[in-house]
Amino acid sequence: MENIKNSENQSFRDWLVEAVNEGKTASYRADPIVVATDAGLINKEVMPGIDVLTSPGEAFLRQIGVTFFSGLNGNFVVPSMGQDTGVFVAEASDAGGISANMASASLTLTARRVTHSQAITKETLSQSSSSVYSAIVQNLINGVWNAVTNDLFDQLDTDAATQITSLGTNAAFTNVVNQEASLNGLALARPAYVASPAEKSYLSRTAYMTNQVGIWYNDQINGYPAYCTPASNVNKIYFGDWSRVCVGQWDGLEIVVDPYTDAKKGLINLTAVGMFDTGCYNKRGFAILADASTT
Predict the structure, then answer these.
(1) Model confidence at 286: pLDDT above 50
(2) Cβ pair 217, 204 in contact under 8 A
(3) Which ranges of 160-276 does DSSP label H, i.e. alpha helix?
(4) How many helices (H) does the chain have, and how many strands (E)?
(5) Closest by alpha carbon to 257, among 1, 10, 14, 16?
(6) How far apart are CA 41 and CA 258, in angstroms?
(7) pLDDT band at residue 85 under the 50/70/90 scheme
(8) How does 122-157 read in b/e, with b if 16+ C-beta sit within 10 Å?
(9) Rounded distance, CA 173 to CA 214, Å?
């Protein structure tokens, strides 16, 4: 088997047909698909006639302000330290020995492989519409970013485990907004609530006071933005500064074609491969409520 590399300006369909007809295991570099941008949804041209949108997972992470590190090489250490405040002092006086503590904690991002596979039929190769191949690439990319988004919330639970508060079966308004109070000493850059669809449903139908609207109303909780994502762990309500969690990416994405494994079924297996890691590099920026009242 011969591995071949193809540039993004070659037709994805032509490349795929050639790889299958010539019996080669081929890999397609899809570097332009993911780029650093703060925009929401942007058309990203991968090859003539095929456009790929920012996946919902990536778009969501950028919307809430997650920090991205791209083009990494080797392990990447993200330092963090406490948020200090200066003091006003009287004329001709010193600060009384008060100084910043520069001791820092750190988070090490390490490349971890993320894959997502999809099988297409030999009949699909006979299609001439570029939209067919746009959908194939889009589904592969979406699958990769769904995995990254899910992982971010799992890593946040691990990295900020000391910030998780259990309130039993009661996600009352007081308990929810007390998440804000627990971070009272921090200046937050991008504060917001994030929860799962089930948690949003519960908070939307639970009044914050008698005969009042729900705790979650107009995509806000107590005046702060509230976001809903299926990637959020179902029994958690997250509040904090989302610029203090991060996604690291090594190189671009690669699409590998395998025409052999399911050849007798007329199927061609495509696998998108990327190297990512996620983490929270400052747990002090989060308060996480563990709630069991959504059921």
Answers:
(1) yes
(2) yes
(3) 173-182, 197-204
(4) 5, 16
(5) 16
(6) 31
(7) low
(8) eebbeeeebebbbebbbebbbbbbbbbbbbbbebbb
(9) 9
Query: What is the rounded average pLDDT of the residues 69-74?
Result: 91
Query: How, if at all, do strands 164-166 and 286-290 pair?
Result: parallel
SS3 at position 203:
helix
State the Cα–Cα distance between residues 155 and 78, nearest whole angstrom: 15
What domains lie within the chain, and their CATH numbers? 5-78+107-157+249-277 (no CATH), 167-244+284-290 (3.30.2320.10)
What angle do the packed helices 12-21 and 130-159 form, to 10 degrees? 90
Q: CA-to-CA distance for 264 and 140, rounded, in angstroms?
A: 23
Give SS3 for 204.
helix
- 213: tokens are 């609207």
Cα(158)–Cα(160) distance, rounded to whole angstroms? 6
Using alpha carbons only, give the angle 109, 113, 117 rounded to the nearest 5 degrees: 150
Q: Is the pLDDT of residue 44 over 50?
A: no
